[in-house]
């Protein structure tokens, strides 16, 4: 099954397409996600071979940890992507999708680093560290 899914940043300088299935959403509360998003990051993901950048004139990458990088728009400031450099997966900020995709938050991770001004939703698996059981679809 090939579904064409589209998304991008607020100004249109970065646009992407996904031809394949998206993973359910993982909410990451780690300090890097807090500082770069201003809150926490809710990200879906897809296999790299299903991901295509359609427009990347304002896409910039930032590496806080060697081997990993975050993609953001250097015009409108949108936080968009996270990946292990050359890894099999691209994480995509769920809020950048053009249309609802029927996804839901399946795990909260790094809750030990969460801000103290909100509650982690009950009934969803959570981890104080990075462990989760949310599979990346084929
Ligand atoms: Zn932009
Ligand atoms: Zn994080």
TrEMBL record:
Domain spans labelled CENP-V/GFA: 5-119
Keyword Transferase: no
Database matches in Pfam families: GFA
A molecular-function term among this protein's GO annotations: metal ion binding
Record-linked Gene3D superfamilies: glutathione-dependent formaldehyde- activating enzyme (gfa)
Segment forming the signal sequence: none
Key words, A-Z: Lyase, Metal-binding, Zinc
Domain of life: Bacteria
KW Mitochondrion (keyword) present: no
PANTHER family: CENP-V_GFA DOMAIN-CONTAINING PROTEIN-RELATED (PTHR33337:SF40), GFA DOMAIN-CONTAINING PROTEIN (PTHR33337)
Homology family: Belongs to the Gfa family.
Stated name of the protein: Aldehyde-activating protein
């Amino acid at each position: 099954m090939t579904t064409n899914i589209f998304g991008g940043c607020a100004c249109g300088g970065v646009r992407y397409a996904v031809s394949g299935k998206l993973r359910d959403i993982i909410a990451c509360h780690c300090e890097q996600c807090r500082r770069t998003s201003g809150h926490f990051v809710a990200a879906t993901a897809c296999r790299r071979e299903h991901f295509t950048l359609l427009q990347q004139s304002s896409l910039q990458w930032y590496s806080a940890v060697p081997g990993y990088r975050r993609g953001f728009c250097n015009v409108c400031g949108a936080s968009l992507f996270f990946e292990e450099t050359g890894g099999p997966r691209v994480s995509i900020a769920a809020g950048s999708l053009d249309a609802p995709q029927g996804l839901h938050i399946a795990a909260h991770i790094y809750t030990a680093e969460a801000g103290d001004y909100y509650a982690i939703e009950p009934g969803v698996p959570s981890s104080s560290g990075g462990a989760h059981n949310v599979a990346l679809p084929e």
